[in-house]
Amino acid sequence: MSLSTSFIDRIGVLYRSFMQHDAGQTDRIKRYRNIEPDSAYYIAMMIRIQQSKKILEIGTSTGYSTLWMADAALVTGAQITTIEIEPSRSAQAQGYAKELDLAQCIEFWIGDAQEFLQQDQQHYDLILLDAERDAYVSYWPDLQRLLNPKGGVLIVDNVISHAAEVKGFISKVKQDSRFMCNTIAFGAGLFIVTYKS
Predict the structure, then answer these.
(1) Total-model pTM
(2) Which of 57, 129, 147, 183 sits at a 20 to 30 Å CA gap from 114?
(3) Cα angle at 8 between 7 and 14, to 5 degrees?
(4) Angle (CA) 126 35 154, round 5°
């Protein structure tokens, strides 16, 4: 049903093509900058363990992490909302989701993440933050409002590979006594946040 051989094979091919694209780009913004496979696998496990129902992804890019989460969402009955400011990248992700028969559990939202976060009123069981890191501090008030206070988990990517860029955000989270958090060394580093109670 999920994590089929066909899914694993296709997601592997996609990741290699994304990496090949990035290797040919000197401009960081033009790179796809997808999450690493072991981080994606870990998040897919988290969705299954948590039995997530509402998932938010900030930073779709070409959909590599979205596809991993959607494969898990089919198991838990979850719905994913994924945000991407670049229409062409969202279109790529939508194409892959249709190809892998995962589109039914994904809502693709195109636009500025700050705008979405400020107007959204839902609670999410799992939020994956993998976007422009200089915006994370400004996202934080809305992220804590949208995170389900009963077991919701926020996962932030690239916190080891780009430690200096997320230092202020991590410091702000750690100063809030309502939360417990930890960094784990998967991929480029994942920062995990949840309410204490």
Answers:
(1) 0.94
(2) 183
(3) 85
(4) 20
